[in-house]
Amino acid sequence: MLSRSAERLYWLARYLERTENIARLVSVHMNLLMDLPNSVEMSWLQLVRINGAKQEFHEKYKVANEHNVTRFLLVDESYPGSLFSSLIAARENIRTSRDLLPDEAWEQVNEIYLFVKNNIDSVYNRSNRVAFLNEILKGCQRFTGLLSGYMSHNHPYQFIRLGKNIERADMTSRILDLASLLLAESRSNEMRQYESILWLNILKSLNAQLIYRQQVRSSVNGDDVLNFLLLNTSLPRSVGCCLAEIADCIDALPNNDALPDDLAKLKAYVQGIDIRQNTETQLRGILDDLQNKLGQLHDRIANNWFLQVIAD
Amino acid sequence: MARHSYQQLTKHGTNDANCLLNPLAIAYAMKSIWKNYNTDNAYDELMSSEFQPRQISHRLCQYLHSLNADDIDKRKMAAELAILEMGISFTVYSDEGNIDRAWPFDIIPRIIASTEWRIIEKGLKQRLTALNCFIADIYSEQAFIKDGLMPAEIILSSKNFRKECVGMTPRHNVWANICGTDLVRDKDGIMYVLEDNLRVPSGVSYMLENRVITKRVFPELLQDIDILPIDDYPSRLQDMLTSLAPEHISKPQIVVLTPGIYNSAYFEHAYLAQQMGAQLVEGGDLVVNDDDCVYMRTIEGLEKVDVIYRRIDDDFLDPEVFRKDSSLGVPGLMRAWKAGNVSLSNAPGAGVADDKVVYAYVPEMIRYYLNEEPILPNVQTYLCGNPEHLEYVLAHLPELVVKPANESGGYGMLVGPHASSREIAAFRQIIQENPRNYIAQPTLAISTAPTLCKGQLEPRHIDLRPFILQGANTFVTAGGLTRVALKKGSLVVNSSQGGGSKDTWIINMERS
User: Fold this and answer.
1) Distance between CA B332 and CA B350 in Å, rounded?
2) DSSP state of B36
3) What's the longest Cα–Cα distance across chain A?
4) Which of A99, B51, B238, B277 sits most deeply, having the most CB atoms within 10 A of its CB?
5) SS3 B101
6) Which helix (H) or strand (E) holds B498?
7) Residue A10 main-chain phi, psi, to 5 deg
């Protein structure tokens, strides 16, 4: 498999996962808005902050209201981290990798792209936005299902899986970040009263509600949810599970050199996180740290498999 | 013969299967979408007159009449949606940057009888065989020139003659493995060869996708009519490329070499690679080592490559030999090819026969190398490099089509009858500055076919590009890519110049 193709498939998966995750993130935020009483302050700016895009946002928009933030995060083509930009990048990567994938894979991504392109205006209205985001989530799920059912689980498949899980681990940590941020900065104590609603929504956003109920068997509370979403190894969107998947992919790929060692260190770091010992602010530090470590892992992967392209 | 089949043409007809309809009734039935149809100006592929379908198009015309305007509209939209979703696109270079455009497709197919097609197919094989003999001859003994059949300066002045290739013998001594030959039918009903594309002919993926779309849009119709299938092309291409591999290699590593993701035919490169299960590579993915072998950079390190289906022009293939500034190619590729370690398809230098001046000599080549009479005629061609021809051309510019000898894509040509006097004057100047570089042909009344234009069928000019493969064996696609000039009256069918395409049906007339 060409190094260049490996790189494109890896990025295809990252961008598509990012597309799906931004849709999830905005959905969960909207759900919270609807669940929580009006007296609880919930700023749209938090969504921008956890994506680390506060400065970019303010360069373009004055007010962080629903209209501006959803526009920025969902359909702003000039912000490279927006849903639409991610989707365009995913489409460009798959357009240039069609020789490695089943026909339907390209058609599926192209279909989501056409849908978003033709429905950009629907994000400004709340009920249209809900339908818009659902359609995107469904499209992304179809893509995942299609690959798992149609594609040989060969090297190209492993690179897709690798990209997807790195992006997913990163986003799960950002969604946890959102929760801690809401709790840490809530000016009234009112947010505390509704904490369990917050955590329930977090679980829902990661499709984790059912498994949580089955496995944790306690009421929904912050410590348990955080532990579960960081350490569980069977829930697809928990950080622990993503790391296990990444380890699997790396094992299945040739020339993996020192990567398994790096990964073992990262796994140990995650398993060592003790939620109960930390305040919300400390927790935010840990999550930031985790995101940096995932960034380093990406660099190692790029150096190991993709760099031959840049060599000349 | 099959007049009674017209009974289905009208919804007002009776249920009596034997009921014959008189021409007036047919005219009434055909009124709606054929309102503006006119077959006066050229041979029409489907209609022998305004109201009379040819035998090959009976069934299609019947079917079209079973649909109302709304049905037709729905089918057209379904085709457009399929093209968008399948992402069938081509790139247009313009001042505003490169734009990826959806492939313009007309849902009404073009039909040819298998009886006629078998003759055309034979003619195409004959032609490519002779062309390959010619190329092999030009890079070895040049007997064709020595025997006085062609002036030596035509080759010496050809920018596609590559002296680096002299003395080479590619596998099977076949240089042009993939050829797209453009055919047009004149008013006399005869198919003429307009040109042979031997460098990097494109369009075959569109031919294949057009059939996929037609299957989606007219499933009822395709079941009824015995149409020769075309979808074996990718496996034929793979077989042909495999037959080119260096002799000791049984399962060669085949790659498709593309100039990159911004090339206008990138869609096709990716499509063919995917269909053949070959790797799609760019120049930067390949490297030639000290052992003169070609390798690709993979996640497992370097891997040897045996056959390259290159979609890059000679000029850009190898900066060590051709253009030094090329970043698309692979340094050392020619070394590897000459050492016999890799096959390139088409072989470098094959373009020497893809020259509109050389074209004029093809009938002579067929007689000379094969000792046969040409099955497919050439269009009358005036070579501006020949003083007598030049004089004629300059005197008759308003009636002629003038083309540069080496360009493709319909660029830089003059269509006399459609040009202003200023354009003609400018061309007169250009031709005189470099006569070798221009040829002229009479303006053909190239044939038309019904094309859907704003809900009505109107005649539009079309051509046909069949694809011929030659390696250990020779293969011709059943039909080819029919290109259509969508602008009324236009004779230019290139997609970069406002052309579209149609599905091409070769209907089996022997069985039915």
Assistant:
1) 19
2) T
3) 60
4) A99
5) strand
6) none
7) -60, -45
Q: Give the CA distances from residue A167 to residues A18, A291, A294, B381, in Å, rounded to whole numbers and listed in that order.
A: 7, 10, 9, 62
Q: Which residue do the tokens 């995750």 mark?
A: A21
Residue window 275-304, chain B: list those with CB within 8 Å of chain A: 278-282, 284-285, 287, 296-301
Task: List chain A pLDDT tens, one digit each, 312 residues.
Answer: 899 999 999 999 999 999 999 998 898 888 888 888 777 767 888 889 888 899 999 999 999 999 999 999 999 999 999 999 999 999 999 988 888 898 899 999 999 999 999 999 999 998 899 999 999 999 999 999 999 998 998 999 999 999 999 999 999 998 888 788 777 765 556 667 778 888 888 898 888 988 898 888 888 888 889 889 999 988 999 999 999 999 999 999 998 877 888 889 999 999 888 877 777 778 888 899 999 999 999 999 998 898 754 444
- With contact defined as beta carbons under 8 Å apart, do B317 and B348 qualify? yes
Q: Which letter does DSSP use for residue B506 in this model?
A: E
- Could you tell me the two tokens for A47? 């969504």
- Look at domain B382-442 and name its CATH class: alpha beta
Neighbours of A57 (CB within 10 A): 21
Pair of tokens at residue B151: 């002036």
* CA pair distance B357, B487, nearest whole angstrom: 29
- Give φ, ψ of A108 to 5 degrees: -65, -50
Q: In the structure encoding, which two tokens stand for residue A58, read together?
A: 């303010």
- Judge: B282–A4 Cβ closer than 8 Å, yes or no: yes
CA-nearest of A67, A71, A48 to A58 is A48
Q: Is A152 on the interface with B (CB under 8 A)?
A: no
Check B274 against A96: CB less than 8 A apart. no
**Closest approach of B163 to chain A, Cα-based (Å):** 30
Question: In this structure, are residues B350 and B198 in contact, taking their beta carbons and an 8 Å threshold?
Answer: yes
d(CA B310, CA A26): 46
CA distance A305 to B218: 47
Q: Would the CB atoms of A4 and B284 count as touching at under 8 Å?
A: yes
- How far from chain centre, in Å, is Cα A200? 18
Chain B contact for A103 (CB, 8 A cutoff): yes
Degrees to nearest 5, angle at CA B247 with B244 and B249:
90
Q: Which of B271, B273, B298 sits opposite A3 (nearest CB)?
A: B298
Q: Length of chain A, please?
A: 312
Is the minimum CB–CB distance between B102 and chain A shorter than 8 Å? Answer: no
Q: How far is B222 from chain A, CA to nearest CA, in Å?
A: 23
Nearest to A220 by CA among A206, A237, A204, A199: A199
For A34, B217, B361, B444, B451, the CA distances from B220, given in Å and listed in that order, are 51, 9, 46, 36, 20
Which CATH architecture does the domain made up of B114-182+223-370 adopt?
A: 3-Layer(aba) Sandwich (3.40)
DSSP reduced 3-state for A34? helix
Give B310's strand partners: B257
State the pairing for strand pair B456-465/B448-453.
Answer: antiparallel
Yes or no: say if A58 and A45 are a contact pair by the CB < 8 Å rule: no
As for the ipTM of the complex, it is 0.75
Helix boundaries (H) for A151-189:
155-185
Q: At B330, is the secondary structure helix, strand, or coil?
A: coil
Query: CA-to-CA distance for A20 and A40, rounded, in angstroms?
Result: 28
Q: What are the structural domain ranges in chain B? A: 114-182+223-370, 382-442
DSSP sequence for B435-467: GGGEEEEE-----EEEEEETTEEEEEEEEEE-E
Structure tokens at B326: 């090329």
Q: Do B154 and B357 meet the contact criterion of CB atoms below 8 Å apart? A: yes
Residue of chain A whose alpha carbon sits nearest to that of B260: A96
CB contacts of B274 in chain A (<8 Å) are 98-101, 103
Q: Domain ranges for chain A, please list them.
A: 3-309
Distance from C-alpha of A57 to C-alpha of B265, rounded to nearest angstrom:
38
How many C-beta atoms lie closer than 10 Å to residue B302's C-beta? 15
